[in-house]
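so the lab meeting is tmrw and i was supposed to have these ready like two days ago... anyway. pasting both below. for each one the top line is the aa sequence and the line under it is the structure tokens. i havent really looked at them closely yet so no promises
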Amino acid sequence: MLAALTRRWQKGRLTDPRYAGLFDEHPDEIVSVDCETTSLDIAEAELLSIGAVKLRGNRILSSESLYLLVRPEKRPDAGNVSVHGLRPRDVGDGMAPADAVFQLLDFIGGRPLVGYYLEYDMAILNKYVKGLIGCALPNRRIEISGRYYDYKLRQQPDSHVDLRLQTLVDDLKVPALPRHDALNDAITAGMLYLALKRRGFG
């Protein structure tokens, strides 16, 4: 009930009718999404790259993926570059943030979104989305770490659950892709989602 009221309130704030479809959930596809940013502090973080890939049924549609480099207002500092490898010259020719976010909105439509610690990515994206279309992303969210937590507690009630990404990758036996690349991380989250789905936690 609360979710329905929130979506109705959000829809009332929508200022760009082109994106009314964000409120119409896709029946059989979801999108795995990941962002690389200039900081882990949401208040000051800017987008550097966006990765997204569609999933249909039990398949990752690698041919239907999105990878966008985004030009931030401030140059990434050395410590930040050491994490994601995106140097100032790499993102200097990137897209303007608004253009990248509009392209992402067109890509995801009303599909539910899946990710690993998705709340952070959504908070970053919504800093831009709200200013562009008047409301936050209304898409249903599927949090991988939460599904994995439920899966492990079903196996071992009251146990400590290690939610580090590498632990999930190793335990669920999905291929290890190079980390801190937005598209690779989105594909990894998609593989983890499907692995949990096969175990009854999709």
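ok protien two:
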Amino acid sequence: MITLRSILFNTAFYVNLIVRMIVLTPIYFLLPRKKAYVIPKNWAISNNWLMEKIVGATFEVEGLENIPEGGYIFAPKHQSFWDTFALLPWLDDPVYILKRELMWIPLFGWYIAKQRMIPVNRGARGKVMLEVLKRARKEMEAGRQLIIYPEGTRRPPGAEPEYKYGIARMYRDLGVPVVPVAMHPGLFWPRRKFLRFPGQFKVRVLPAIPPGLDPDEFYKTLVEVTEKASDELLVETVAANPDLPLPPTAVKRLAELHSAA
């Protein structure tokens, strides 16, 4: 049954994307930039609905009161393709720093260019990174929310944290709050896997880390608060979904937490 549901969901997911692009592209490019964001946000809502109705996977968002006004860095755990889009409806005007190759994809690249996403050559240094920072500062001064995945790439649930120090430099240079986010969508939409699993999980938006801390202190705080919440949610999620198959990283981390307790 899980295999059949996964086939149906993956088919519906890509059909939903293609049909919306074909039908709504003229509207998207005629609308002003920020108003046009309603189209990708509604796409995200429709994907969450498909996950619920076909797969049987649902989620709730806690801590929305912790989201500040204006510009800030949104810093979620990154486990799945799901968390690249699913939280868009809760953000006013988000902007991503993304690899420049995505801008070269026909149509998709045009979509993200319209939203003034910030492309970067991941191997770039020096002046190129200064230009990225300049662009990020300009967008945040306009009240936008910069989405940064502190670990840089998707990590399996329960894996040892590998936070990149780059977010500490961005925090120092941009002078804005950072909102950590803990969640485990990777248990239901695993990275590099075809199967999708039913169940229920939480997205926990944590209190914002205020600007002005020493970068090292900020980095330590970000890792500590995010990983503490992540561990708590891992225990809660597995307890609420006892039949959920777990990756080895989650099994290992749960054993460590039970041993420490």
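from a quick look at the 2nd one: Residues 71 and 240 are 35 Å apart (CA to CA). Residues 59-260 form a domain with the Glycerol-3-phosphate (1)-acyltransferase fold (CATH 3.40.1130.10). will dig more after coffe
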